[in-house]
Amino acid sequence: MPDLATATILAALILAASIVSVEFGISVAVIEIGLGVVGASLFGLRPTPWIDFIGSFAGIVLTFLAGAEVDRTLLRREWKPALLIGGLSFLLPFVGVALFARLVAGWKMDQALIAGIALSTTSLAVVYAVLIETRLAATELGKILMAATFVTDFGTALALSVLFVQPTPSLALFIVVSIAIVGVMVAFERPFFARYGARVIEPEIKGAFLALFVLMWTADLAKSHAVLPAFLLGLAVADVFKRHPEEQRRFRIVSFAFLTPMFFLKGGLNVDVRQLAAGGWLLLGFLVVKIATKFIGVLPAARRYVQPYAVFTTLLMSTGLTFGTISSLYGLNAGIIDRQQFTILIGAVIGSAIVPTIIAQRWFAPPVHVLSADEMADAEDEEFEPRSR
Predict the structure, then answer these.
(1) Each residue's pLDDT tens digit, 70-114
(2) Contact, 267 vs 58, CB < 8 A?
């Protein structure tokens, strides 16, 4: 299919997802994933190189923005719930899914470990999108959730690195560059904003994009991924958005208007419904084990620290997308799992992004309704105007 035809269909799906999200009060991220599956099934759409590139960059931008939302003062004060919720959110699903893959599905040990890593994740992108849409990102609950999600994904990345990634000079370069990027951004953000800030040409956003591209480039050289350093970069410069809230608003507009939809649609496009049907029972088993072990690990801790929103928290911690896809793709490219196993894992990852999110928003969300576009604009105007005076 020609690129322009593909882009046109994707644009129509993006618009349809926004309309459905507003009408039914369901996260647009979930709708976009679902419509990606529909696009793959009905129109034969598949991720092209340009879709892969934009989608990958969008995931890094979302992760950066999520890191920038975390209140470092609150994180220092509430490190215990974030560490406990996030740690249990990784550990129990990793062990439970790996045992299920090995003992029930009959997968080899390396394949079972890939499955455990892929389904131990929590999707920072999905969690962040839901919190932004429901205006919970600025609340203490939202900040604890994002911090806990980071802990979970850090455990996932660490497990993948320790068990499978071979240390190389390129990996050392990636680590050094990541540290340097964070240091440079922190050191120069004040003078940069003083000289170039508040301009219609947006040098601030362009500078952040450059930093994220450098992280992605060096991560690619190291056969790694830039998600964790992107989150840490956002966390390091979080004070910038506090001092310049209008900049945060513009950054969100750029991301949620174009980049974010491509990220979530790409996830849906990776699903082959016919291959999923052949291993449907296994996909369902993986999904049930992931969500069940998330509840066993997270719910007791959530009841202690974020009651009365423990179930809502547990459901959002049960989502998965970015790291689950990365881990599955790593296993496929390294020859650890085959195409059928990859498809089943991707299906379970996508299912975990959709099912818990819908349940959380429809039945367990805190009493903050999903805003329409007009309400969002009015609320943001009220929020930013007093600070700019």
Answers:
(1) 777 777 777 899 999 999 999 999 999 999 999 999 999 999 999
(2) no
233 closest CA partner among 292, 301, 183: 183
Show the 3-state SS of the chain.
Answer: CCHHHHHHHHHHHHHHHHHHHHHHCCCHHHHHHHHHHHHHHHCCCCCCHHHHHHHHHHHHHHHHHHHHHCCHHHHHHCHHHHHHHHHHHHHHHHHHHHHHHHHHCCCCHHHHHHHHHHCCCCCHHHHHHHHHHCCCCCCHHHHHHHHHHHHHHHHHHHHHHHHCCCCCHHHHHHHHHHHHHHHHHHHHHHHHHHHHCCCCCCHHHHHHHHHHHHHHHHHHHCCCCCHHHHHHHHHHCHHHHHHCHHHHHHHHHHHHHHHHHHHHHHHHHCCCHHHHHHCHHHHHHHHHHHHHHHHHHHHHHHHHHCCCCHHHHHHHHCCCCHHHHHHHHHHHHCCCCCHHHHHHHHHHHHHHHHHHHHHHHHHHCCCCCCCCHHHHHHHHHHHHHHHHC
314: closest CA among 324, 304, 325, 326?
A: 304
* pTM confidence score: 0.74
| Residues 6 or more apart whose Cβ sits within 8 Å of residue 261 | 10, 14, 17, 28, 32
Q: Are 69 and 137 in contact (CB under 8 A)?
A: yes
- The CATH number that applies at residue 336 is 1.20.1530.20
% of the chain exceeding 70 in pLDDT: 93
**Polymer length in residues for the chain:** 389
Tokens in use for 46?
């598949």
Number of folded domains that form the chain: 1
Average pLDDT, the chain: 84
Query: Which residues form the domain of 295?
Result: 3-388
